[in-house]
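Standup notes, protein team

Yesterday: finished cleaning the Salix purpurea set.
Today: Carboxypeptidase structure.
Blockers: none.

Input for Carboxypeptidase:
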Amino acid sequence: MHVKTSPRSLLHLLNFAALLLSTAAATNHGHLEEQRRDKITKLHGQPPNVSFSQFSGYITVDPLAGRALFYWLIEAPKTSKPRSKPLVLWLNGGPGCSSVAYGASEEVGPFRVRPDGKTLHLNPYAWNKVANLLFLDSPAGVGFSYSNTSSDTYSVGDKRTAKDAYTFLVNWFERFPQYKHRPFYIAGESYAGHYIPELSRVIARRNKGVKNPVINFTGFLLGNPLIDDYHDNVGTHEYWWNHGLISDSTYEDLKKFCPNNTFLFPRGECNSALETAYSEFGDINPYNIYSSPCNEISTLRQYLNHSLPWKFRGNDECVVLYTRRYMNRPEVQKALHANITGISHPWVTCSSVIRRNWSDSPKSMLPIFKELIKAGIRIWVFSGDTDAILPLTATRYSINALKLQTNISWYAWYDDHHQVSQIQMMK
Protein backbone atom coordinates (compact mmCIF):
# COMPACT_ATOMS: atom_id res chain seq x y z
CA MET A 1 0.00 0.00 0.00
CA HIS A 2 1.37 3.40 -0.93
CA VAL A 3 0.98 6.20 1.61
CA LYS A 4 1.07 9.69 0.30
CA THR A 5 2.97 12.19 2.45
CA SER A 6 1.98 15.83 2.47
CA PRO A 7 4.61 18.59 2.46
CA ARG A 8 3.44 19.66 5.92
CA SER A 9 3.87 16.18 7.44
CA LEU A 10 7.25 15.84 5.76
CA LEU A 11 8.28 19.14 7.33
CA HIS A 12 7.21 17.84 10.76
CA LEU A 13 9.31 14.70 10.24
CA LEU A 14 12.34 16.76 9.25
CA ASN A 15 11.91 19.00 12.28
CA PHE A 16 11.62 15.95 14.54
CA ALA A 17 14.75 14.42 13.03
CA ALA A 18 16.60 17.68 13.47
CA LEU A 19 15.48 17.78 17.11
CA LEU A 20 16.85 14.27 17.70
CA LEU A 21 20.16 15.17 16.08
CA SER A 22 20.49 18.37 18.09
CA THR A 23 19.67 16.49 21.32
CA ALA A 24 22.32 13.87 20.54
CA ALA A 25 24.83 16.58 19.70
CA ALA A 26 24.03 18.40 22.93
CA THR A 27 24.49 15.18 24.94
CA ASN A 28 27.83 14.50 23.23
CA HIS A 29 28.91 18.07 23.81
CA GLY A 30 27.83 17.78 27.45
CA HIS A 31 30.19 14.96 28.39
CA LEU A 32 33.03 16.57 26.45
CA GLU A 33 32.47 19.80 28.35
CA GLU A 34 32.47 17.89 31.65
CA GLN A 35 35.73 16.19 30.72
CA ARG A 36 37.24 19.53 29.73
CA ARG A 37 36.18 20.98 33.08
CA ASP A 38 37.71 18.04 34.99
CA LYS A 39 40.98 17.91 33.06
CA ILE A 40 44.01 18.70 35.21
CA THR A 41 46.28 21.15 33.43
CA LYS A 42 49.16 20.69 35.85
CA LEU A 43 49.48 19.77 39.51
CA HIS A 44 51.33 22.05 41.89
CA GLY A 45 54.97 20.99 42.04
CA GLN A 46 54.51 18.47 39.24
CA PRO A 47 57.75 17.28 37.60
CA PRO A 48 58.34 18.19 33.93
CA ASN A 49 57.69 15.95 30.94
CA VAL A 50 54.63 14.17 32.33
CA SER A 51 53.29 12.17 29.39
CA PHE A 52 49.84 11.14 30.67
CA SER A 53 46.50 12.91 31.00
CA GLN A 54 44.76 13.46 34.34
CA PHE A 55 41.18 14.30 35.29
CA SER A 56 39.58 14.88 38.67
CA GLY A 57 36.32 16.14 40.07
CA TYR A 58 33.01 15.11 41.60
CA ILE A 59 30.25 12.68 40.65
CA THR A 60 26.93 13.08 42.45
CA VAL A 61 25.55 9.80 43.82
CA ASP A 62 22.55 11.14 45.76
CA PRO A 63 21.15 14.54 44.67
CA LEU A 64 18.62 14.71 47.54
CA ALA A 65 21.20 14.13 50.27
CA GLY A 66 23.85 16.08 48.39
CA ARG A 67 26.35 13.22 48.37
CA ALA A 68 29.18 13.50 45.85
CA LEU A 69 32.27 11.34 45.51
CA PHE A 70 35.67 12.67 44.44
CA TYR A 71 37.68 10.85 41.78
CA TRP A 72 41.12 11.19 40.24
CA LEU A 73 41.67 9.54 36.86
CA ILE A 74 45.28 9.04 35.80
CA GLU A 75 45.55 7.61 32.30
CA ALA A 76 48.35 5.50 30.89
CA PRO A 77 51.13 7.41 29.08
CA LYS A 78 50.18 8.58 25.61
CA THR A 79 53.10 6.60 24.13
CA SER A 80 51.58 3.36 25.45
CA LYS A 81 48.19 3.93 23.77
CA PRO A 82 45.93 4.46 26.83
CA ARG A 83 42.81 3.64 24.79
CA SER A 84 44.09 0.07 24.48
CA LYS A 85 44.63 -0.30 28.24
CA PRO A 86 42.09 -1.53 30.80
CA LEU A 87 40.53 0.66 33.47
CA VAL A 88 41.33 -0.10 37.13
CA LEU A 89 39.29 1.38 39.97
CA TRP A 90 41.39 1.64 43.14
CA LEU A 91 39.78 1.67 46.59
CA ASN A 92 41.51 2.05 49.94
CA GLY A 93 40.09 0.76 53.17
CA GLY A 94 39.99 1.90 56.75
CA PRO A 95 37.05 2.15 56.66
CA GLY A 96 37.37 5.89 56.22
CA CYS A 97 40.73 6.22 54.45
CA SER A 98 41.33 8.15 51.24
CA SER A 99 42.34 6.46 48.00
CA VAL A 100 43.84 9.78 46.90
CA ALA A 101 46.00 9.80 50.03
CA TYR A 102 47.16 6.20 49.97
CA GLY A 103 46.50 4.46 46.65
CA ALA A 104 47.41 7.44 44.48
CA SER A 105 50.07 9.10 46.64
CA GLU A 106 51.78 6.19 48.42
CA GLU A 107 51.07 2.96 46.59
CA VAL A 108 50.30 2.57 42.88
CA GLY A 109 49.94 6.15 41.60
CA PRO A 110 52.57 7.89 39.43
CA PHE A 111 53.48 10.64 41.92
CA ARG A 112 55.11 10.77 45.35
CA VAL A 113 55.14 13.83 47.58
CA ARG A 114 58.58 15.05 48.54
CA PRO A 115 59.43 15.81 52.21
CA ASP A 116 58.89 19.54 51.58
CA GLY A 117 55.16 18.86 51.16
CA LYS A 118 55.16 21.10 48.08
CA THR A 119 56.65 19.19 45.16
CA LEU A 120 56.22 15.79 43.52
CA HIS A 121 58.49 13.18 41.97
CA LEU A 122 57.65 10.23 39.74
CA ASN A 123 57.07 6.71 41.05
CA PRO A 124 58.98 4.24 38.83
CA TYR A 125 56.59 1.43 39.82
CA ALA A 126 53.33 3.20 38.98
CA TRP A 127 50.51 1.02 37.75
CA ASN A 128 49.42 3.54 35.13
CA LYS A 129 52.25 2.20 32.98
CA VAL A 130 49.97 -0.75 32.21
CA ALA A 131 46.47 0.53 32.99
CA ASN A 132 44.31 3.64 33.36
CA LEU A 133 43.87 4.27 37.09
CA LEU A 134 40.70 5.62 38.68
CA PHE A 135 41.11 6.54 42.37
CA LEU A 136 37.91 7.06 44.36
CA ASP A 137 37.45 8.62 47.80
CA SER A 138 34.65 6.50 49.23
CA PRO A 139 32.29 6.78 51.03
CA ALA A 140 31.14 10.40 51.27
CA GLY A 141 33.00 12.08 54.12
CA VAL A 142 36.32 10.46 53.20
CA GLY A 143 39.10 12.57 51.67
CA PHE A 144 37.59 15.16 49.33
CA SER A 145 34.21 13.40 49.00
CA TYR A 146 31.36 15.08 50.84
CA SER A 147 27.69 15.07 51.77
CA ASN A 148 25.43 18.02 52.48
CA THR A 149 23.54 15.80 54.93
CA SER A 150 25.56 15.71 58.14
CA SER A 151 23.95 12.49 59.38
CA ASP A 152 25.48 10.63 56.41
CA THR A 153 28.87 10.50 58.11
CA TYR A 154 27.32 8.94 61.22
CA SER A 155 25.23 6.27 59.50
CA VAL A 156 27.37 4.86 56.69
CA GLY A 157 28.33 1.22 56.37
CA ASP A 158 29.12 -1.51 53.87
CA LYS A 159 25.71 -1.54 52.16
CA ARG A 160 25.46 2.16 51.35
CA THR A 161 29.13 2.32 50.38
CA ALA A 162 28.60 -0.40 47.75
CA LYS A 163 25.39 1.22 46.50
CA ASP A 164 26.98 4.67 46.18
CA ALA A 165 30.10 3.26 44.52
CA TYR A 166 27.97 1.54 41.90
CA THR A 167 25.98 4.73 41.28
CA PHE A 168 29.27 6.58 40.96
CA LEU A 169 30.45 4.14 38.27
CA VAL A 170 27.23 4.37 36.28
CA ASN A 171 27.40 8.17 36.28
CA TRP A 172 31.16 8.28 35.72
CA PHE A 173 30.90 6.14 32.58
CA GLU A 174 28.38 8.64 31.23
CA ARG A 175 30.95 11.38 31.72
CA PHE A 176 33.69 9.23 30.18
CA PRO A 177 31.88 7.09 27.58
CA GLN A 178 35.18 6.23 25.87
CA TYR A 179 35.71 3.76 28.75
CA LYS A 180 32.42 1.95 28.23
CA HIS A 181 32.77 -1.77 27.39
CA ARG A 182 36.52 -1.67 28.08
CA PRO A 183 37.98 -4.36 30.39
CA PHE A 184 37.38 -3.12 33.94
CA TYR A 185 39.04 -4.26 37.17
CA ILE A 186 38.76 -3.19 40.80
CA ALA A 187 41.80 -3.22 43.09
CA GLY A 188 42.58 -2.17 46.63
CA GLU A 189 43.78 -3.24 50.07
CA SER A 190 42.90 -3.52 53.75
CA TYR A 191 39.17 -2.89 54.36
CA ALA A 192 38.72 -2.82 50.60
CA GLY A 193 38.55 -6.56 51.27
CA HIS A 194 34.94 -5.66 52.04
CA TYR A 195 34.38 -2.77 49.63
CA ILE A 196 35.55 -4.63 46.54
CA PRO A 197 33.74 -7.98 46.86
CA GLU A 198 30.52 -6.16 47.79
CA LEU A 199 30.77 -3.75 44.85
CA SER A 200 31.81 -6.61 42.58
CA ARG A 201 28.69 -8.55 43.53
CA VAL A 202 26.46 -5.58 42.67
CA ILE A 203 28.11 -5.19 39.26
CA ALA A 204 28.08 -8.93 38.51
CA ARG A 205 24.39 -9.23 39.35
CA ARG A 206 23.50 -6.17 37.25
CA ASN A 207 25.55 -7.53 34.34
CA LYS A 208 24.00 -10.99 34.44
CA GLY A 209 22.45 -11.80 31.09
CA VAL A 210 23.77 -8.61 29.44
CA LYS A 211 25.76 -9.45 26.29
CA ASN A 212 27.83 -6.27 26.08
CA PRO A 213 27.71 -4.55 29.49
CA VAL A 214 28.78 -0.92 29.83
CA ILE A 215 30.79 -1.87 32.92
CA ASN A 216 32.80 -4.72 31.42
CA PHE A 217 33.74 -6.16 34.79
CA THR A 218 36.52 -8.73 34.45
CA GLY A 219 37.91 -9.30 37.93
CA PHE A 220 39.36 -7.81 41.09
CA LEU A 221 42.65 -7.67 43.00
CA LEU A 222 43.00 -7.52 46.79
CA GLY A 223 46.16 -6.78 48.75
CA ASN A 224 46.46 -7.80 52.43
CA PRO A 225 42.66 -7.65 52.68
CA LEU A 226 40.22 -8.07 55.53
CA ILE A 227 38.18 -11.06 54.31
CA ASP A 228 36.94 -13.08 57.25
CA ASP A 229 36.95 -11.95 60.90
CA TYR A 230 37.66 -15.36 62.43
CA HIS A 231 40.50 -16.41 60.12
CA ASP A 232 41.99 -12.91 59.97
CA ASN A 233 42.09 -12.71 63.78
CA VAL A 234 43.72 -16.13 64.10
CA GLY A 235 46.24 -15.51 61.32
CA THR A 236 47.16 -12.00 62.42
CA HIS A 237 47.87 -12.89 66.02
CA GLU A 238 49.84 -15.94 64.97
CA TYR A 239 51.99 -13.69 62.75
CA TRP A 240 52.67 -11.31 65.65
CA TRP A 241 53.82 -14.15 67.88
CA ASN A 242 55.90 -15.87 65.18
CA HIS A 243 57.75 -12.61 64.48
CA GLY A 244 58.51 -11.99 68.16
CA LEU A 245 56.34 -8.89 68.36
CA ILE A 246 54.28 -9.99 71.36
CA SER A 247 54.82 -12.05 74.50
CA ASP A 248 53.66 -15.61 75.07
CA SER A 249 51.09 -14.52 77.64
CA THR A 250 49.58 -11.90 75.33
CA TYR A 251 49.38 -14.43 72.50
CA GLU A 252 47.53 -16.84 74.79
CA ASP A 253 45.04 -14.07 75.69
CA LEU A 254 44.51 -13.21 72.02
CA LYS A 255 43.86 -16.88 71.16
CA LYS A 256 41.44 -17.16 74.06
CA PHE A 257 39.42 -13.96 73.67
CA CYS A 258 39.65 -12.78 70.03
CA PRO A 259 38.93 -15.47 67.38
CA ASN A 260 35.14 -14.98 67.55
CA ASN A 261 35.32 -11.23 68.14
CA THR A 262 34.87 -8.70 65.35
CA PHE A 263 38.08 -7.59 63.65
CA LEU A 264 36.85 -4.03 63.10
CA PHE A 265 35.45 -3.30 66.57
CA PRO A 266 36.97 -5.68 69.14
CA ARG A 267 35.38 -5.46 72.55
CA GLY A 268 35.84 -6.62 76.11
CA GLU A 269 38.77 -8.83 77.01
CA CYS A 270 39.81 -9.10 73.34
CA ASN A 271 40.21 -5.33 73.14
CA SER A 272 42.28 -5.33 76.35
CA ALA A 273 44.55 -8.05 74.95
CA LEU A 274 44.99 -6.07 71.74
CA GLU A 275 45.94 -2.91 73.64
CA THR A 276 48.60 -4.90 75.46
CA ALA A 277 49.87 -6.28 72.14
CA TYR A 278 50.07 -2.78 70.63
CA SER A 279 52.16 -1.57 73.57
CA GLU A 280 54.50 -4.55 73.20
CA PHE A 281 55.04 -3.70 69.53
CA GLY A 282 56.85 -0.49 70.46
CA ASP A 283 57.60 2.24 67.92
CA ILE A 284 57.68 0.23 64.71
CA ASN A 285 55.68 0.70 61.55
CA PRO A 286 53.14 -2.16 61.64
CA TYR A 287 52.55 -1.87 57.89
CA ASN A 288 56.19 -2.73 57.26
CA ILE A 289 57.83 -4.16 60.35
CA TYR A 290 61.34 -3.87 58.84
CA SER A 291 61.10 -0.28 57.59
CA SER A 292 63.40 2.47 58.80
CA PRO A 293 62.09 4.83 61.49
CA CYS A 294 60.71 8.21 60.50
CA ASN A 295 62.62 11.31 61.59
CA GLU A 296 59.31 13.07 62.21
CA ILE A 297 57.84 10.12 64.03
CA SER A 298 57.10 11.90 67.32
CA THR A 299 55.15 14.69 65.64
CA LEU A 300 53.24 12.24 63.50
CA ARG A 301 52.45 9.82 66.30
CA GLN A 302 51.07 12.70 68.37
CA TYR A 303 48.73 13.53 65.48
CA LEU A 304 47.75 9.90 64.87
CA ASN A 305 47.09 9.09 68.51
CA HIS A 306 44.40 11.77 68.57
CA SER A 307 42.75 10.69 65.34
CA LEU A 308 43.00 6.96 64.61
CA PRO A 309 43.96 3.84 66.54
CA TRP A 310 47.18 2.06 65.70
CA LYS A 311 45.45 -0.53 63.53
CA PHE A 312 44.07 1.95 60.99
CA ARG A 313 47.07 4.11 60.21
CA GLY A 314 48.69 4.40 56.81
CA ASN A 315 51.73 2.75 55.26
CA ASP A 316 54.92 4.87 55.36
CA GLU A 317 54.28 7.18 58.28
CA CYS A 318 56.55 9.95 56.96
CA VAL A 319 54.89 9.91 53.55
CA VAL A 320 51.48 10.25 55.22
CA LEU A 321 52.69 13.48 56.76
CA TYR A 322 54.08 14.79 53.46
CA THR A 323 50.82 13.94 51.67
CA ARG A 324 48.73 15.65 54.33
CA ARG A 325 50.77 18.84 53.95
CA TYR A 326 50.52 18.73 50.17
CA MET A 327 46.78 18.07 49.92
CA ASN A 328 45.99 20.89 52.35
CA ARG A 329 47.62 23.49 50.10
CA PRO A 330 44.97 25.70 48.44
CA GLU A 331 46.80 25.66 45.10
CA VAL A 332 46.82 21.84 45.12
CA GLN A 333 43.10 21.64 45.84
CA LYS A 334 42.43 24.17 43.08
CA ALA A 335 44.44 22.14 40.55
CA LEU A 336 42.54 19.00 41.56
CA HIS A 337 39.13 20.73 41.40
CA ALA A 338 38.72 19.57 45.00
CA ASN A 339 37.04 20.97 48.12
CA ILE A 340 34.51 22.89 46.03
CA THR A 341 32.26 23.31 49.09
CA GLY A 342 35.00 25.16 50.97
CA ILE A 343 35.21 22.87 54.00
CA SER A 344 36.95 24.78 56.76
CA HIS A 345 38.58 21.87 58.63
CA PRO A 346 41.89 20.44 57.37
CA TRP A 347 41.96 17.59 54.87
CA VAL A 348 42.91 14.29 56.55
CA THR A 349 44.07 10.97 55.14
CA CYS A 350 41.53 8.99 57.20
CA SER A 351 38.26 10.03 58.81
CA SER A 352 38.01 8.95 62.44
CA VAL A 353 34.31 9.98 62.41
CA ILE A 354 33.54 7.57 59.57
CA ARG A 355 35.45 4.71 61.18
CA ARG A 356 33.99 5.15 64.68
CA ASN A 357 30.42 5.26 63.37
CA TRP A 358 30.61 2.45 60.82
CA SER A 359 27.17 0.86 60.95
CA ASP A 360 27.31 -2.51 59.18
CA SER A 361 30.23 -4.84 58.54
CA PRO A 362 29.57 -8.53 57.79
CA LYS A 363 31.91 -10.93 59.57
CA SER A 364 32.88 -12.73 56.37
CA MET A 365 33.23 -12.04 52.65
CA LEU A 366 33.71 -15.74 51.86
CA PRO A 367 30.09 -16.28 50.70
CA ILE A 368 30.52 -13.42 48.21
CA PHE A 369 33.82 -14.89 47.02
CA LYS A 370 32.06 -18.20 46.34
CA GLU A 371 29.26 -16.48 44.42
CA LEU A 372 31.68 -14.50 42.26
CA ILE A 373 33.97 -17.48 41.60
CA LYS A 374 30.94 -19.45 40.44
CA ALA A 375 30.01 -16.54 38.15
CA GLY A 376 33.45 -16.70 36.49
CA ILE A 377 34.91 -13.52 38.01
CA ARG A 378 38.72 -13.58 38.16
CA ILE A 379 40.18 -12.90 41.64
CA TRP A 380 43.79 -12.21 42.56
CA VAL A 381 44.68 -11.93 46.27
CA PHE A 382 48.22 -10.80 47.05
CA SER A 383 49.76 -10.38 50.49
CA GLY A 384 53.01 -8.74 51.53
CA ASP A 385 54.99 -10.63 54.14
CA THR A 386 56.09 -7.61 56.22
CA ASP A 387 52.58 -6.27 56.93
CA ALA A 388 51.54 -6.96 60.52
CA ILE A 389 48.04 -5.47 60.23
CA LEU A 390 46.52 -8.05 57.87
CA PRO A 391 49.47 -10.36 57.27
CA LEU A 392 50.12 -13.24 54.92
CA THR A 393 49.08 -15.84 57.49
CA ALA A 394 45.63 -14.22 57.78
CA THR A 395 45.21 -14.20 54.01
CA ARG A 396 46.21 -17.87 53.73
CA TYR A 397 43.77 -18.96 56.43
CA SER A 398 40.92 -17.02 54.80
CA ILE A 399 41.59 -18.33 51.29
CA ASN A 400 42.08 -21.89 52.51
CA ALA A 401 38.63 -21.68 54.11
CA LEU A 402 37.15 -21.49 50.60
CA LYS A 403 38.33 -25.10 50.07
CA LEU A 404 39.20 -24.51 46.41
CA GLN A 405 41.04 -27.01 44.23
CA THR A 406 44.65 -26.17 43.42
CA ASN A 407 45.06 -25.49 39.72
CA ILE A 408 48.77 -24.63 39.73
CA SER A 409 50.87 -25.54 42.78
CA TRP A 410 52.90 -23.06 44.81
CA TYR A 411 55.89 -21.77 42.84
CA ALA A 412 58.42 -18.92 42.88
CA TRP A 413 57.74 -15.90 40.66
CA TYR A 414 60.63 -13.92 39.16
CA ASP A 415 60.76 -10.41 37.76
CA ASP A 416 63.87 -9.50 35.77
CA HIS A 417 65.65 -12.57 37.19
CA HIS A 418 64.88 -11.53 40.79
CA GLN A 419 62.59 -13.65 42.92
CA VAL A 420 59.85 -11.35 44.19
CA SER A 421 57.06 -13.65 45.41
CA GLN A 422 55.42 -17.04 45.43
CA ILE A 423 52.20 -17.86 43.57
CA GLN A 424 49.50 -20.48 43.81
CA MET A 425 46.46 -20.71 41.52
CA MET A 426 43.11 -22.20 42.55
CA LYS A 427 39.71 -22.76 40.98
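Follow-up from PR in the comments: The first helix runs from residue 7 to 38.
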